[in-house]
Amino acid sequence: MNSGFPSPAQYYRAKGLDLNTYLIHHPESTFFLRVRSSCYESLQVFQGDLLIIDRNCYPRRNDLVLAIIDGQRRLIRYIPPGSSQNTAPVEIWGTITYVVHTVRAP
C-alpha cells in the first residue's frame, strides 16, 4: 500500500562526470604525456604533471606547445614565425590544452 506524496526525484539519475567531454576536443589527434623533469617549473609545469596535447589545435602567441628543438622534445611558449624573438626553427608537435597537476599522490 502506497501512502503519501511520491518524491519528485524518484526517477532522476545524475549522469557521471566524463572528463573526456571537458578536456578532449579532438580525440583522434589528442595524446597524453607525463612530465619527468623539473626544468619546466618556470612555465608552471611540474614533475609528474600530465599534459593533454592536441595536435589539431593551432597554437596562438604564448600558448604552451610541445616542440622538437635539435632533436629533443621541449615545452616552450609559442612565438609565431617571423617574430623578432623567434631565432631558431622549431617543429611544433602540438598545443598543450591542459596540464593535470597532482596535488597529492595516491
Please outline what is shown here.
5% of the residues lie in helices and 30% in strands. With 106 residues, it is mainly beta.
Strand order in space, largest sheet: 1-2-5-3-4
Shape: elongated
Query: What is the CATH class designation?
Result: Mainly Beta
Low-confidence stretches: none
Radius of gyration: 21 Å
Q: Fraction of residues in helices?
A: under 10%
Determine the N-to-C terminus distance: 48 Å
Would you write up a description of this structure?
The chain has 106 residues and is mostly beta strands. It has a single domain, classed as Umud Fragment, subunit A. It has one helix and five strands; from the N terminus they run αβββββ. It has one helix at 19-23, and strands spanning 30-34, 50-54, 64-69, 72-77, 91-100. It has a five-stranded antiparallel sheet with strand order 1-2-5-3-4, with no helix packed on it. The model has no long low-confidence stretch (mean pLDDT 88).
Task: Name its key features.
106 residues; mainly beta; Umud Fragment, subunit A
SSE layout:
Elements: H1 19-23, E1 30-34, E2 50-54, E3 64-69, E4 72-77, E5 91-100
Antiparallel strand pairs: 1-2, 2-5, 3-4, 3-5
